[in-house]
Amino acid sequence: MRSISPEAIVGSRITNQSLRRWLHSLPGVDKVGLEARAASLGTRSIKTASKAWALDAAIKMMDLTTLEGMDTPERVKSLCLKALTPDPTDLSTPRPAAICVYGDMVKYAKATLKDSGVYVAAVATAFPSGRASLRVKLEDTKDAVRAGADEIDMVIDRGAFLAGEYLEVYKQIVAVKEACKRNDGSYAHLKVILETGELQTYDNIRRASYLAMLAGGDFIKTSTGKVTVNATIPITMLMLQAVRDWYEETGELIGVKPAGGIRTAKDAIKYLVVVRETAGETWLNPDLFRFGASSLLNDVLMQRQKLKTGHYSGPDYVTVD
Amino acid sequence: MFEYSPAPESRSLVSFETSYGHFIGGKFTKPSNLYKTINPATEEVLAEISHGTDKDVDAAVKAARHAYEKVWSKLPGSERGKYLYRIARIIQERGRELAVAETLNNGKPIKETRDFDIPTVAAWFFYYAGWADKLDYAGLGANPKAHGVAAQVIPWNFPLMMLAWKVAPALAAGNTVVLKPAESTPLTALLFADICQQAELPEGVVNIITGYGDTGAALVKHPDVNKVAFTGSTDVGRVIAKAVAGSDKKVTLELGGKAANIVFDDAPLDQAVEGIINGIFFNQGHVCCAGSRLLVQESIQDEFLKKLKRRMEQLRVGDPMDKNTDIGAINSKAQLEKIDALVRQGVAEGGELWAPQCELPRNGFWFRPSLITGVSPANTVAREEIFGPVLSVMTFRTPAEAVTKANNTPFGLSAGIWTEKGSRILKLADQLNAGVVWANTFNQFDPTSPFGGFKESGYGREGGRHGLLAYLKGGN
User: Domains of chain A by range and CATH?
Assistant: First the structure.
């Protein structure tokens, strides 16, 4: 898998102390400067052909999500059908990258999506709080993988992270990664949710990003969507800087997924601008950048219709899911 | 590929007259003695401008004197404040028009005129409008008096903003003004004359006289001028200081700079990169307080320069009217030649030049954002103000060495420190000979904060209470 060992990256045997030394040696983040840069990229003006490209890209990079206690097989099926035909009035509309559901809904999603190319992602590891024993978290993960999940969205143990128990967080991610292993030896793709709204400081977010990448996460994801502060542009920019620098150091390409609170096409385009100007074109790819969103798709579809026809349609002209 | 499509701001938001006279006594004079002002991004002629003679200068000073004696000095501060508030509001209302005009005449990107220049101009008028009826609290005792007629000569790098920095405090303090904009960028000053008419400012309180250096010289030498304020090059500043020596004119000079931006190994690196970029490439580097010398700690030099170059590759150079342009045109052919000559000298003296290979437009005046590495303090590019998008890179090993190198310049306008260590910031800020020291940021301007330099960067302060005092008797 990876050509460079965690020990080589950290420069020592992996202990809580060596992880602490390594994470705390990362350059600090200046809040004012980071947010100013994010705001300035927010003023980019994306028009005509570039807008059309961005809207399609946003759909292709979307994890269409439903994570509610009231989810039912019918609801999940309806969402999957939406993913297969996002806009019945325009069959050239691309499909989202994946459907994101709770573990027990994976089999229903799989039954509808089959081998359409739209992946099924399952949240696992006692999502969203992550407050369960490792045994339960691993079983949760294995269960989803057995049901056919292509991707696993796990949460880190924020309590352990904030208590400085970096080794514990690291070990859990490594164990979950192992639980993603299928019978044929392949692995479900692992997205590591940092829950940035609970880590609170940008320095913490940078450290958690590095810890997740070191432990073997394929993606680092901002949020569960279940806390007060979810994805923001500055946080996403910081995580994009982390994957960019990680790639330069190790040659490993890690993805980024902002999730929660991204509702409009305008917002999505701002994120794509940040991807382009922070990590670069390589990351403008569903393998390396995803949006976790539920209501975003319809706004993008409306904007897409507007661009094609020259006038706004309205919510009655896109399908509910 | 995610390439940004053109997103041009509308040219039709502003219309210029074919020719302009001077603005004297509340009216435009008949255009005469004309020269052309152009758009430096296209070399298109925008309008013809009058080149002011001694006679024109005399008429403008007379109008200002008359307005001072008969009207402005007799108005209560609260009334002067009302005019200033009105001007500030009109500037906001006409913000897009002014931004487009500034971009067309100066070459700087619309993003900057829209988001920085024009909002700062309005903020300056609002701030000093508030002072107009509170002069008793400026620190000079009750009823401080204005100087009388202020002669103000401003540069081409922030045409309307420099006008605001000069005109707003002068009027708030009760002076009347004669202002001469730079020869290459007179158009927003002439639009400002129109705004004065729209605000029904009493005739002669603001007079604008256009022309070249000789017009400015005639203005500052005029015997009936009480106060001289100049922003521009140190060479011209010297000439002005000589010209007014021996008279009782008060003088403020805001001149050149060669600021050091010091990056320590514990700095927030990504934000430091942004700050260095902003420090030297903002406004094409046509900034007196630009962070034109990068002092980077030797231990992180390679990593930091790699990040800096990668970021420079992202800079979008081109049509200033495009909303996505980061770096616009050099203001004039003469300035382009000066930058080019200094960079050539830098390379001849052993510096290594690097610039992203971005495409440049065919017409107009352009210079790629550039780095010169391997610079030593003895090199020309480490000592002379280039006033263009060129960063000279040097290294240091210890904080003491950083301070010594940063201070080793005839200038002393600004400096930047990048470190996560608060105690180091406080200590270095104390040791750096610069009028402004920014920590973990750069190029921040606020009307409440005084701005100005040490040594050859000039004397006097603009902005804040200090900037007001410069326009009151006993204030400087």
Answer: 28-317 (3.20.20.70)
The average pLDDT across B134-152 equals 97
Local structure of B35: helix, strand or coil: strand
pLDDT at A4: 87
Best mutation target, A29, A43, A45, A282, to test chain B (most B CBs within 10 A): A45
Count of domains observed in chain B: 2
To the query of whether residue A257 is one of the catalytic residues in this protein, the response is yes
Tell me which of B9, B254, B384, B385 is the catalytic residue. B254
Q: How far apart are CA B416 and CA B430, in angstroms?
A: 12
What confidence tens digit (pLDDT) does each residue in A104-133 have? Answer: 999 999 999 999 999 999 999 999 999 999
Sign of CA dihedral B350, B356, B357, B361: negative
CB pairs under 8 A between A and B: 66
- Residue B195 is assigned to a structural domain of this protein: yes
Please enumerate in sequence order all residues whose Cβ is within 8 A of that of B352, keeping only pairs 6 or more positions apart, or say none: B372, B373, B374
Would you state the pLDDT for residue A1? 55
Asked, for residue B446, whether it belongs to a domain, the answer is: no
Q: How confident is the model at residue B476 (pLDDT cuts 50, 70, 90)?
A: low
**Does A54 contact B3 at a Cβ distance shorter than 8 Å?**
no
B271 and A CB contact within 8 Å: yes
Tokens representing B335?
């300035």
pLDDT of residue A66: 97
B324 interface with A at CB cutoff 8 Å: yes
CA distance A94 to A87: 9
Domain extent, residue B96, equals 11-255+455-469
Q: Does B243 touch chain A (CB under 8 A)?
A: no
**Helix H segments across B315-391?**
333-348, 380-383
Q: What are phi and psi of A217, to 5 degrees?
A: -65, 140
Q: Cis before residue A315, ω within 30 degrees of 0?
A: no
The yes-or-no answer on residue A184 being catalytic is no
* Rounded Cα–Cα distance for residues B234 and B341 (Å): 19
Nearest CA in chain B to A33: B271
Interface of A with B (CB under 8 A): 27-30, 32-34, 36-37, 43-51, 53-54, 57, 241, 272, 276-277, 281, 284
Query: Distance (Å, rounded) from C-alpha A41 to C-alpha A273?
Result: 7
Q: Which tokens belong to A76?
A: 């999940």
Q: Tell if the CB–CB gap between A33 and B5 is shorter than 8 Å.
A: no
CATH of the domain at B39: 3.40.605.10
- What does the pLDDT average to over B350-362? 95
User: Is the separation of the CB atoms in B259 and B292 below 8 Å?
Assistant: yes
* Residue written as token pair 């759909």: A59
Tell me the shortest Cα–Cα distance from B242 to chain A, in angstroms. Answer: 43
Q: B5 and chain A: CB distance < 8 Å anywhere?
A: yes
**Cα–Cα distance, A165 to A157 (Å, whole number):** 10
- The residues facing B390 across adjacent strands are B370
